[in-house]
Amino acid sequence: MSASGFFSGNYQKKLANILARSRARLPLTNMKWFALLVGSMLLLGSCSSQPPDSKISPQPPVSKPQQSKEPVRGIWLATVSRLDWPPVSSVNISSPAVRISQQQKALTDKLDNLKRLGINTVFFQVKPDATALWQSTILPWSDTLTGTIGQDPGYDPLQFMLDEAHKRGMKVHAWFNPYRVSVNTKPSTVTELNNTLTQTPSSVYVLHRDWIRTSGERFVLDPGIPEVRDWITSIVAEVVENYPVDGVQFDDYFYTESPGSALNDNQTFRRYGQGFASRADWRRDNTQRLIAQVSRTIKKLKPEVEFGVSPAGVWRNRSHDPAGSDTRGAAAYDESYADTRRWVQLGLLDYIAPQLYWPFARDAARYDVLAKWWADVVKSTNTRLYIGVALYKVGEPSRKEPDWTVKGGVPELKKQLDLNESEPHINGTILFREDYLNQPQTQEAVTYIRNRWGR
């Protein structure tokens, strides 16, 4: 099997060992996981190391979970930098029992509120960087829970979320940031990462320094290295196998460069980019390979678990591609090297949730133009479409987008939800993000949501 197949080199054995250790820590009821994993490896092992003429490696469609008749009414719940949860104050509590109680109560209070609002799906960020909010044998515990990377929080937040959400009749999708290692590159962050060397598991930052790059003012993994993609796949496999998640979601952070902090993958491109017309094509192929192998792994382990991606709202602008949308926004295809439209066409996703964070009146990226464009993309496929809506903009003054403050933002929100619920190829709405439900400027909109969706 080639180095750029499903699992490179000896990584098949490594992944099997990882999952075996995971199984020992979190016992399962049967041994089918191993047979399914091996089958997944064999199925994908035939991937050629040479890209096809299109430079994008096609994959046959995967089987899809049966679609629920109820539209998704979702919310993103972010844990990176403790944006939505856990409470910042809880981290400084000296008593572990009090900290655990405060964090758990904060989460159940949120779930109770979401239930009242009619939210039926929570997209819970379980991997905000190269740390975990579950009992992992691959990643150290997240410092968002205790303030220290690798410190056991005394409970399993993912399992707690699943238990409490399912008790309330709500689904949970485990939200992963695939490549981010840290949110900054400060000396104090480097010290924290280095301190994990004596822990088990240690941070990927100290175990595989050759995988680490600086990009967008953060430490990130280099997506062009096959072993990196394998490693990410193994992390998703660990969660899917050991937890009753309803879905898995990747966010829009693939290649995450900024003007002053580009990802230096020159050496990686020289090693793995032969046969591609451009670095951009090679990067898009790298991203698609990750999506394909994660999709295959999930379907082999638990076919009922949904896999989706929440990309930037613009795939490509029509000025650059006749198949693109009539917009003038930053495009995922060109900016983050994610050919999201093609993933839908190839059947690699159960759902796609583009972030359409603009109002109807934003000429450069009109909400209705993009929503209808995406509906057209999915209509001949088995991929469902959920639209990401900018709750964080509601009530916020904006010179370019003044509609968010008209009557508390309710008219704009109503138009967006009306479109989502009337267009037959749109299967749901996801609000970004949970903490904005609690802000003063959104309260008129929150009341509207409760009256519209609440039970």
Automatic annotation (TrEMBL):
Residues 50-70 are annotated as: Disordered. Gene3D superfamilies: Glycosidases (3.20.20.80). Keywords: Hydrolase, Signal. Residues 72-405 form the Glycosyl hydrolase-like domain. InterPro entries: Divisome_Glycosyl_Hydrolase, GH, GHL10. The keyword Signal applies. GO terms for molecular function: hydrolase activity. This is Glycoside hydrolase family 10 protein.
